[in-house]
Automatic annotation (TrEMBL):
It is a multi-pass membrane protein. It comes from the Bacteria. It comes from Shewanella nanhaiensis. The keyword Acetylation does not apply. Signal peptide: none annotated. Keywords: Cell membrane, Membrane, Transmembrane, Transmembrane helix. It is found in: Cell membrane. This is LysE family translocator. The chain crosses the membrane at residues 6-29, 41-69, 75-92, 145-166, 186-204.
Amino acid sequence: MPDFALLAVFLPTFFFVSITPGMCMTLAMTLGMSIGVRRTLWMMIGELVGVALVAIAAVMGVASIMLNYPQIFEVLKWVGGIYLAYIGVQMWRAKGKMAKLDEQSARISNGALISQGFITAIANPKGWAFMISLLPPFINVDKELAPQFVALLSIILFTELISMLAYAAGGKSLKIFLSRGDNIKWMNRIAGSLMIGVGFWLALG
């Protein structure tokens, strides 16, 4: 298991990043309004599988570097922390617009919903870059790798599922809230501030 201190930082960090409006969350909200939360669960299955594959691929790459090139891992840890801070700055500068998605999904099949969620998760280059940069700083090289990866992956999938359920169930009310004033902007700034702080804490720790 990772250190509890690292888990205590990882959980809110990934939660705020996950809950911030993006393609997957907007897709969940749009489908929740158009076909209902129950059928939107099919999309969530595909999305979670995609996120798990991205995380596992990132972890395997990180583990290979960690075991064979420990010096490079230290560099990667620094780069990861700096990249987290960079993402935080970008979130602060975001204008707060919601992603636009096609809402005409009432007749889509369950298989197509799974595919839609899966493709959305694995086709996002920012998702890959984020996983590769986020995971290394939270790994303790002095402990077994597998239990740490399982714990981190469990947190990732749990927070993704809770966030998508919130967006799908929130429906029109959540859309009105996010579209009003600077609500998205402030959500981005809260998450961005956390990312900047965590990034520097991990890089310098």
